[in-house]
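Sample intake — 30S ribosomal protein S3, chloroplastic
Collected from: Geranium renardii
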Amino acid sequence: MGQKINPLGFRLGTTQNHHSIWFEKPKKYCESLQEDKKIRDRIKNYIDNHRVSSRTDYISRIQIEKVRDFVQVIIYMGFPMFLIEGKPHKIQELKVDVEKVLHCGNRKLTISISKIRNPYRDPNILAAVLAHQLKRRVAFRKAMKKTIEFAQKEGSAKGIKVQIAGRIDGKEMARVEWLRKGRVSLQTIRTKIDFCSTTVGTIYGVLGIKIWVFANEES
C-alpha cells in the first residue's frame, strides 16, 4: 500500500513555508505551540460568529510571527467584507478577544488583514464553499463539480482534486468519493501543491473533505 504524507509538510523549504514563524526554548515550545492554536481558534470563531454573508470572509491561512515582546498576526482572507468595512473598530474588538489567550500579557499584539489575489484557487476557501453546499443538502457530486468550476474560473490552477469521505447522502456504509480535473502531481516536490483537510457536520454525521490544488510548477 502507498504511504500517504501531507503535501504541505512534504514540500516545506521548497514551495511551502511555515505559517508560524518564531523561536522558543525547548521547555516553552509546547506552550507556544498551544498558544498559536488558541489564537487561530479565537480568530476563526470570531469571524464565523460575525460573518455578514455565507459567501464572504473566508480564511485562507493565519500567519503568526513572534519575537521577544511582539506578536504579529496576519489573516489572509478571500472576500474580507466584514473586517475591511468595520475597520478599525472590528479589528480592535478582535484584538481584545485574542489578547485573552496570550500567555504573557505584556506583549504587544498587532492584527492585520491581507486580501488574497485568487480566492477560488485556495483549497481552504474551496473547502469552505463545498462545506456550505453540503450543509444545505446539495447533492455531493453536484457540489464537487461546482467547486471544481470555481477553481477553473481563476485560470491559474493546472489541476484540482476534491475528495469527500463518510456517510455520503445518508448511506449506512461510509465510502470515499472523489473527482479530479487536470493534473495533480503529488510525488514531484518542486510542484506547488496547495492542500486542505477539514470536516463538515451534516444531519447524517461528519464528512471529511480533502482538496488538492496544483497551482504551478517551479523551475
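Post-analysis note: The CA atoms of residues 58 and 78 lie 5 Å apart.
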